[in-house]
Structure formats: structure tokens, C-alpha cells
Design goal:
The protein is α/β, with parallel strands linked by helices and about 350 residues long. It contains eleven helices and 15 strands. The structure holds (4S)-2,6-dioxohexahydropyrimidine-4-carboxylic acid (DOR) and zinc ion.
Length: about 350
């Protein structure tokens, strides 16, 4: 429901279909930001060591629940990290028992903590066949890792060379192309067979690759897949705001300490959780599409995963709010917040 001045919008309580919560002190520092905005979130398994078995997922879920603010009814949806040795029976059992919502595929060395990832797709064909039969979603980090492929082309090459052949070989497999960043990725998902969807982050809707190099090298704009040219950002904006049910909200909030980002070899990932929903609302407003915000934020992802939308609603008001620069982590470190130090135009009504 949007009022006539669109100064206020009420939508079904949204979900975040792609979140990195980490563990320990970092988990405690960041989880409240996700839990305050979203009913559920798909939790990425790239811990060190990664979450590879259903037993790992159960233990991690318990640590997340422990770290939740008192009284929160946020639900973490767990995933397993696909390795060359993933056990198909464990995956199917974990899914059927409601412990996991899907399995995440990181091509080996594609991104943060992906050294346990899959080196040869053929190795996991039997697991994918079992997932297809049981209806277990496959979540993909969609980039090839061949160092000969230009970093800005890695998603497009993946879509054509890995995703499409896999989608054809396993025609019933449910697939999420995570954090799509390119016009090629968007175009593929738009015309793909049924059962293929994509998450879109707030930051890839907000800036293009120039931001990484504005007046110097800016590590807080570096994530993977890396932001691309402006025409790709425009394609993402069109897809997100189109109402097409294949596209849905997934922030890829990925906190790293300042010292890990502001380094000679800085980590990939933006901590976007504190400003996630207001930032998406801003994009939908700028695109004149606030009437389609609810579908993207609260309905399309649930449908893709075969879940009911959340009960309850959230209301955003057009009221500027100053965003703190950092979130402190116990132990003395701090995490820079995306858009920290700025005013953000939309605020979630308490
Ligand atoms: O920028 C990223 N950061 N991309 C990923 O795929 C992983 C994430 C992380 O875990 O930090
Ligand atoms: Zn991610």
C-alpha cells in the first residue's frame, strides 16, 4: 500500500535471500541489523571452516539463534557449502528435515573463503541429480575463476559456460543465480527455463565500477562479483523494478573489519545490512516503481523457494536518517557500514 504522496509505504515483511552473518564476535555485532528488517534470511555457509554437513548447519543455526537480540522472531534459513566431497544423502535428508534450504556452489577460489569450493563441475553431478529429484535449490556464485578471463567478464562467461549447460543437464533443478551484476546475467534469467531466479544486491543497484576508483582506490566499494559498467547497473535496476517474479531481494551483506578491507590485499564484501531496506526503497522510488517494491522484497523470493510470504508488514517513511559510519565488534575492531556517514532518505517505522 502506497499513499498518494508516496511518503510512506507498507509492505509485507520482507526476507533477505543472501546474507553473510559470520560467527563469534562478528555474528553478534551484525545480526541485529538483519533481524530488525527481515523475517527470514538465507545464511551463507562460507565460514572458516565452511558449513559442509547438515550437522554443521544445525550447530551454526544454534549459534545464530543464540546471538539474536532478545525477543526476535527472525528465522535463519541454512545452506550447505558444496565441496568436491558433498554427500548427496546428507543434503537430501537435511532438506527434507527442514534443516537446510539449499546448497551454495562457489567455484573454487572465486571469492572470500572459497578455497574449499568445487574445482570440477563433473564431480558434483551425482549430488545435483539427487538435489533435482528432491527439489533442493542450488545457489550459485556465478563467476568463472580462470585468471585468463577478465574480472569484469567472469559472470557473463559463467552464465554461458557453466550455468546454462548445468540448467540443461538438470532441467528440474531449482537454481538461484546469486547477486547478478551484469546485463548478460539479467538477460539469461529473464529468458531461462522455469525454476531459475536471481538475487540483486542494493549496492549493485546504486553504483557502477567507477565508484571503486573515484579519486583513489576505495576498498569499501570492492565486492565480488565486482561492480560493472553503468549499462549493467541500468539492466539490474530495470530487472529489480520490473515486477518479474524471477528477481528478488538478496543483500549479500558481507561484513569485514576495517583492517581486513583497508589493506594491500583487501577483502571483498560490503556491509550493507544497516541500510538495506531503505536503500532498495530509494531505488524503487527513483525508478517510479514503489508499487512493485513489495513483490521484489517480500513475495518473489518466497515463491521461488516454495515458501509462504511472511505474516505481518513493515512500513517505510520518507524521512532522512543519518547512518553511523561504523559498527563496533567486541575486541576493538570496527566494520565500515555502506553509506555510513551519509543521510539515507527512507527510514523503517519502529
Ligand atoms: O564480495 C563478496 N564477499 N562476495 C562474495 O561472494 C563473498 C563475500 C564474503 O563472504 O565476504
Ligand atoms: Zn555472498
Amino acid at each position: 500500500m502506497t499513499d498518494r504522496m508516496t511518503n510512506r509505504i507498507t509492505i509485507r515483511r520482507p526476507d533477505d535471500w543472501h546474507v553473510h552473518l559470520r560467527d563469534g564476535a562478528m555474528l553478534s555485532a551484525v545480526i541485529g541489523h538483519t533481524a530488525a528488517q527481515f523475517g527470514r534470511a538465507i545464511i551463507m555457509p562460507n565460514l572458516v571452516p565452511p558449513v559442509v554437513t547438515t550437522a554443521d548447519a544445525l550447530a551454526y543455526r544454534a549459534r545464530i539463534q543464540e546471538a539474536l537480540p532478545a525477543g526476535s522472531d527472525f528465522t535463519p534459513l541454512m545452506t550447505l557449502y558444496m565441496t568436491n566431497g558433498t554427500n548427496a544423502d546428507d543434503v537430501v535428508r537435511g532438506f527434507e528435515e527442514g534443516i537446510i534450504a539449499g546448497v551454495k556452489l562457489y567455484p573454487q577460489h572465486a571469492t572470500t573463503n572459497s578455497n574449499f569450493g568445487v574445482s570440477q563441475m563433473e564431480t558434483i553431478h551425482p549430488v545435483l541429480a539427487a538435489m533435482e529429484r528432491a527439489g533442493v535449490p542450488l545457489l550459485m556464485h556465478g563467476e568463472v575463476t580462470d585468471p585468463a578471463v577478465d574480472i569484469f567478464d567472469r559472470e557473463a562467461v559463467f552464465v554461458e559456460g557453466v550455468l546454462d549447460p548445468l540448467a540443461k543437464r538438470f532441467p528440474g533443478l531449482k537454481i538461484t543465480l546469486e547477486h547478478v551484476t551484469s546485463a548478460e546475467g539479467v538477460g539469461y534469467v529473464e529468458s531461462a527455463r522455469a525454476g531459475i531466479g536471481a538475487t540483486i544486491t542494493p549496492h549493485h543497484l546504486m553504483f557502477n565500477r567507477n565508484a571503486i576508483f573515484q579519486g583513489g582506490i576505495r576498498p569499501h566499494y570492492y565486492c565480488l562479483p565486482i561492480a560493472k559498467r553503468e549499462h549493467h547497473r541500468q539492466a539490474l535496476r530495470r530487472a529489480a523494478t520490473s515486477g518479474n517474479p524471477r528477481f528478488f531481494l538478496g543483500t549479500d551483506t558481507a561484513p569485514h573489519t576495517r583492517s581486513a578491507k583497508e589493506a594491500a590485499c583487501g577483502c571483498a564484501g560490503l556491509f550493507v545490512a544497516p541500510v538495506a531496506l531503505p536503500t532498495y526503497a530509494q531505488v524503487f522510488e527513483e525508478e517510479g516503481a514503489l508499487d512493485r517494491f513489495e513483490a521484489f522484497a517480500s513475495l518473489n523470493g518466497a515463491r521461488h523457494y516454495g515458501l509462504a510470504p511472511n505474516a505481518g508488514t513493515v512500513t517505510l517513511v520518507k524521512q532522512p536518517r543519518f547512518v553511523a559510519e561504523d559498527v563496533a565488534v567486541v575486541g576493538g575492531e570496527a566494520v565500515h557500514v555502506y553509506r555510513g556517514g551519509e543521510e539515507v532518505g527512507w527510514t523503517i517505522e519502529p
